[in-house]
Q: What sequence folds into this?
C-alpha cells in the first residue's frame, strides 16, 4: 500500500516507516496521522513483519503537531480561515483525540518498535518516540516537551510515557521547564537507549532489530505484551500473567521444535514464526 505522508518498506522481516514531511520537520498533520494509523494496522496484520523501525526524513524525527501560522494577505492582515470540515460520527466519538489514537496504536502494536532518532523530536512527536519500545539516536537527536509553550498541558500520551521512562521528578523537570535536551543528556536520562554516530543511525537501529529477530517471533510478541501488561499489575497477578503468556510460544509448534533441536545440535536456530 502507498502512503502520501510516509514511506513504508520491508527489508527481510523488518518494516521501516519513514515519516515523510521533511519540509515541516515531519510535523504531524491529519494526513500523516491517518497514514501512521493505517501503516500500523497493515503491520499488525502482516505476519512477515517481525520488527519495526521508525525514523524521519530530512533533519527531524517529528516536530510535533503541525500548527500552521495564521495565513496573511499582502497587507499583513489575517486571511479568513476556511470553514472546518464537518466531523464524522467516528471523530465525534473519539474520546482519545487524534494524537491519543496514535499513542495507542504504536504502544499497542504487539511487535517490537524501534525509533531511530535522527533530529528534533518535540511535543506529540516526542510522545510518538516514547510510545516505541526502544530509541536509538544520533548526536543530532534532541527532545523538547513544548506543551506549556503553547498554553497546553501534555497530551498524546506524554504524561503516561515520560514518568515511566525517566521517573517522576525528571519528567516534571522536562515538562515544566520545556527545556531542550540534547543527545548526550537524553542518553543519560534514558530517553535514548543507544547513542550512535549519525552516519550509522539506521544501520545501528537495524542491528538492534536483527538482534531481536534471532529469537522466535511469537515468543518475542508475547514478551512485549506481558512486560507492558505487568507494569500495571500486582506481583501476584503479574506472575499469573507470565504463566499465561508462557503458553503462546508453545503454540508455534515449529519454532518450539526448532528451539529444542538447535540447542541439542549446538547451532543457530532458524525460526519461521509458525
A:
Amino acid at each position: 500500500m502507498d502512503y502520501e505522508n510516509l514511506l513504508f518498506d520491508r527489508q527481510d522481516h523488518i518494516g521501516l516507516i519513514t515519516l515523510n514531511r521533511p519540509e515541516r520537520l515531519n510535523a504531524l498533520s491529519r494526513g500523516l496521522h491517518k497514514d501512521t494509523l493505517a501503516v500500523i494496522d497493515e503491520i499488525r496484520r502482516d505476519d512477515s513483519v517481525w520488527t519495526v523501525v521508525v525514523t524521519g526524513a530530512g533533519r527531524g524525527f517529528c516536530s510535533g503537531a503541525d500548527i500552521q501560522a495564521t495565513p496573511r494577505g499582502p497587507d499583513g492582515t489575517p486571511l479568513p480561515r476556511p470553514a472546518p470540515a464537518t466531523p464524522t460520527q467516528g471523530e465525534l466519538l473519539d474520546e482519545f483525540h487524534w494524537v491519543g489514537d496514535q499513542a495507542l496504536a504504536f504502544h499497542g502494536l504487539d511487535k517490537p518498535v524501534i525509533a531511530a532518532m535522527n533530529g528534533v523530536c518535540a511535543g506529540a512527536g516526542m510522545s510518538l518516540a516514547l510510545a516505541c519500545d526502544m530509541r536509538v539516536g544520533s548526536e543530532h537527536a534532541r527532545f523538547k516537551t513544548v506543551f506549556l509553550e503553547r498554553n497546553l498541558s501534555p497530551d498524546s500520551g506524554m504524561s503516561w510515557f515520560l514518568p515511566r521512562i525517566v521517573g517522576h521528578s525528571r519528567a516534571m523537570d522536562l515538562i515544566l521547564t520545556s527545556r531542550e535536551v540534547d543527545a548526550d543528556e537524553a542518553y543519560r536520562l534514558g530517553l535514548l537507549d543507544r547513542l550512535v554516530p549519525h552516519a550509522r543511525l539506521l544501520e545501528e537501529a537495524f542491528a538492534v532489530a536483527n538482534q531481536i529477530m534471532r529469537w522466535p517471533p511469537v515468543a518475542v510478541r508475547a514478551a512485549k505484551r506481558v512486560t507492558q501488561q505487568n507494569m500495571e499489575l500486582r506481583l501476584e497477578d503479574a506472575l499469573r500473567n507470565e504463566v499465561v503468556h508462557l503458553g503462546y510460544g508453545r503454540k508455534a509448534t515449529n519454532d518450539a521444535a526448532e528451539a529444542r533441536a538447535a540447542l541439542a545440535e549446538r547451532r543457530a536456530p532458524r525460526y519461521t514464526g509458525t
User: Anything to note?
Assistant: The chain has a mean pLDDT of 91. The first strand starts at residue 6 and ends at 11. The first helix runs from residue 30 to 45. The chain has two domains: 6-67+89-212, 217-265.
